[in-house]
Each structure stands twice: as structure tokens, then as C-alpha cells.
Amino acid sequence: MKTIGVRFRIVMRTLDPALLATAVIGAFLRFSRLGEYDNSYYTATVTSMLQNAHNFLFASFDPAGMVMVDKPPVSFWVQAFPAAILGISSWSVTLPKAIIGTLAIVILYLTIRTTFGRLAAIVAALVLAVLPASVVIDSRNEPDSLLSFILLLAAFSVISAVQSGKWRWLIIFGVLMGIGFNTKMLVAFIPLPAFLLYYVLAAKHPIYQLLMRTASVVGIMLLVSMSWSTVIALTPQEDRPYVGSTADNSIWTLVFEY
Fold first, then answer.
1. How distant, in Å, are the alpha carbons of 190, 195, 205, 239 from that of 173?
2. Can you give the pTM of this predicted structure?
């Protein structure tokens, strides 16, 4: 069986015109909406994060660093880079989401084609390109678009781990799931049981090796997932912003209750 990497190179050498047309349609729908909508709460957060490293690390909502936004920081870190270069505006904070939304169309195509063939891949990519919900989240500055993209990459990685049998794809999967947690917390774990069940049933490894690999990837995922929250928990309250949307200033309340 050819590995995902080999198949990826084959696909890229023979770029599908239908994929190109689908990506153009998806890009047009997303980029044509740039600047039409931005969540002012999150735009203010990005503005504050660009003030100093303290606000950037803790995802402070206000420039004074008094209150933390009610989400983990990864999505806002991504928005901060174009905003720092192009200036804060409703379209600059949305630009990364339109880009990754378009890339998601290509990634979905590659993921489906290597498993189910070209026709299924084109249909899936086209549905994603024009799906109203997808277009909407890819043209707003909220975390959902980035989370969807990360989970799509995680799906690609776990399929690659099964098809190639290589550790590195499994490690990438665990890291991506952890980054997804730091994008929108426990929402990122909704597809996790399906991902792990697929790996356990489809991977061709001896049972002890399969259990060891699964336990290892879960450990990697939890380590990455808890990294930022642990920093918040270990930082004295007087040295960090108040955890927004909580009554007790606890990051664990935000993670497990909010």
C-alpha cells in the first residue's frame, strides 16, 4: 500500500482541474465576505494582545491586562500576526480564517481521495466549498474556523498513521488535538472517540504495540492540551488577568464548566 506521502506527491504532480475550480469557488465565497463581519469582543482582544507580551500570552481582553478573554489563545495568536503587519481592522483579523478555510477544501480533497477515490473527493470538497455554515465561520474572526481546520488535519494525520504505520503521524495527531483544545477547549474533543476507535480498529500492529501507541498519543495530546491552562493555573492571580466568564477566577472553571 502506498503511503499518504507518496500519494500526496502523485496528486500534486497531477493537479486535478476540478479541485482547482472548487478551491477558486470556495476562495471567492470566503474572501468576498472579508470585512463584512467581525466579533468586536475578539477584535478588541487581538488589539490588546498586540500591546505587550503579557497580554499576548494571557489573551487579555483589555489593554491594561485586567481580564482574560473566555477562550484559549491560539485562534487569537493566529489573528494577531496579520493584524500586527496590516493593522487592526475587521478584514485583517478575518484574513487568516478565509485562508485556512480555502486550504481546508484542498486538505479534505487529499484526505478523501487517498481513501475513497477522486469522485468522492471532489464531491466532499465541493460541499465544503459552498456549505453556508462553512463559508460563514471562515469569514468571521471566531475560533470555529481554525478549530475545524485543525481537526481536519488531525483526521488526515490519523489516517496517515494507519496507512503508513509510522509513529510521526500519530505524534502529529496528538499535537494537533492538543492545539485544537487550546483553540476552543473541550469542543475539540468531540470527534476524539471516533478518531481513536478508527485507529484501534484499523491499525495493523500487535495488540501490545497498539495499546502502547494509543496510550502514548493520548499522553501527548493531554500534555499539549493542558500546557497553557497549567501556565494560567500556576501563575499567581495578581500577576495575570482575571479569567473571564468565571466567578472564581479559575482556569479550570473555564475549561470544565463554562
1. 15, 10, 18, 34
2. 0.91
Nearby residues of 46 by Cβ (< 8 Å), 6 or more positions away: 76, 79, 80, 83, 88, 93, 141
Contact between residue 83 and residue 121 where contact means Cβ atoms under 8 Å apart: no
Q: What is the pLDDT of residues 187-207, one digit of tens each?
A: 999 999 999 999 999 998 889
Q: By three-state DSSP, how is residue 7 classified?
A: helix
Question: Rounded to an integer, what distance in angstroms lies between the CA atom of residue 130 and that of residue 153?
Answer: 20
CA 63 to CA 65: how far, in whole Å?
5
Q: Look at residue 258 and give its three-state secondary structure.
A: coil
Q: Residue 154 and residue 15: Cα distance in Å, rounded?
A: 23
Residues 114, 107: Cα–Cα separation, whole Å: 11
CA distance 158 to 171: 9
Residue 197: helix, strand or coil by DSSP? helix
In 3D space, the residue among 13, 23, 2 whose CA is nearest the CA of residue 128 turns out to be: 23
Instruction: Output DSSP code: residue 249.
Output: -
Q: Are 89 and 79 in contact (CB under 8 A)?
A: no
Please give the Cα distance from 224 to 105 (Å, whole number). 26
Q: In this structure, what C-alpha cell is assigned to residue 226? A: 493542558
CB neighbour list of residue 144: distance below 8 Å, 6 or more residues apart: 137, 184
Q: Are 26 and 76 in contact (CB under 8 A)?
A: no
Listing DSSP states for 43-89 in one string gives: HHHHHHHTT-HHHHHHTBSSTTS-BB-SS-SHHHHHHHHHHHHH-S-
Which cell goes with 208? 501490545
Q: What is the pLDDT of residues 9-24, one digit of tens each?
A: 555 555 788 999 999 9
What is the residue whose three cell numbers read 475550480? 21
